[in-house]
Amino acid sequence: MIPWSCLCSHYYLIPAMKTPKLFAIVVLTLLAAFAHAAKSGGGSGAGDEVAPRIAVYLDCSGSMVPYLEAVEAEVRKQFPNADVFKVPAIRVWVDGSVVRGGVATVLPHKPAAGPTVSLDTSRLSATGKEILARYAGNFEVGSVGAWVDILRTEKRYDALVIFSDFNDQVLQVRLGRPPLRTYVDDAGQRSLPETEIKDDRTVAEKAWEDVWVGSFDLANAGKAPALYLFSTRNPASRILQKSADVSGGKFKLIDWLRPDGPPKPAN
To answer: Mapping DSSP to helix (H, G, I), strand (E, B) and coil, where does residue 92 land?
Structure first.
């Protein structure tokens, strides 16, 4: 587990500059502790390869486009051992009680119309290549929900890192004709107490959340990756926040980096 204080030690030592470059440098400093872990990690047991320690999920949806080029360039330059997965959404869908695209199934990759999961493996470790080759179809269908469900028990990573504006929903439906919405975690409602959010799910339909939280709790014993969340706009969904908290990771709102964001904090 990587101390949160290490991630933020240089947070406000950055001079004023254009937003894309500023965002890239902040990403660089936020991940400094991760870089050390990646570069000093032990062998993977497969030849001489250094075990990859970090998996990064880059939300490539339209609202994130102004930041992606700078962020990706700096991450790849400074953290060559990080596996960067580029997926054009930040959704979590749950069908009945099963996370869409989750670890229970392996789906063929059928690119969607419009933005699609990047299949570029040139900068991935052997582990990243293996995961993308097996699960690109899952990520295409299930977005970050599939990515987290698959990687939450991946011991070859020390940390999972998500960069997003967290605009998208968590949507759960009860299967039927037609499907019935039982739970929606919408970005516009995340400031409300959880007790005020309509939740018609049964105990069985909530079980996937317990599985996620239980998996990430193992990070405290070094048996699962910790989860870190960085947002340029909205709070993360409740289940991602709970997972980050229990893993020893954190959520950090960096909305002041957006051109239309609030002023930079004074301290």
So the answer is: strand
Q: How far apart are CA 217 and CA 231, in angstroms?
A: 22
φ, ψ dihedrals at 148, nearest 5°: -70, -40
CA-CA distance, 227 to 243, in Å (whole number)?
7
Q: How far apart are the C-alpha atoms of 72 and 81, rounded to whole Å?
A: 13
**Mean pLDDT for the chain?**
81
Its pTM stands at: 0.81
Angstrom distance (rounded) from CA 248 to CA 226: 6
Instruction: Determine the Cα–Cα distance for residues 213 and 227; give it in Å rounded to an integer.
Output: 11
Q: DSSP label at 162? A: E
How far apart are alpha carbons 76 and 54 in whole angstroms?
12
Per-residue pLDDT tens for 145-199? 999 999 999 999 999 999 888 999 999 999 999 999 999 999 999 989 999 999 9
How many beta carbons lie within 10 A of that of residue 143, not counting itself?
Answer: 24
Decide if 127 contacts 83 (C-beta within 8 A). Answer: yes
What are the helix (H) ranges across 152-263?
A: 207-217, 238-247
Amino acid at 25: I
Interatomic CA distance for residues 228 and 161, integer angstroms: 5
Contact in structure between 93 and 149 (CB atoms under 8 Å) = no
**Residue 94 contacts residue 173 (beta carbons within 8 Å):** yes
**For the chain, what percent of residues have pLDDT higher than 90?**
56
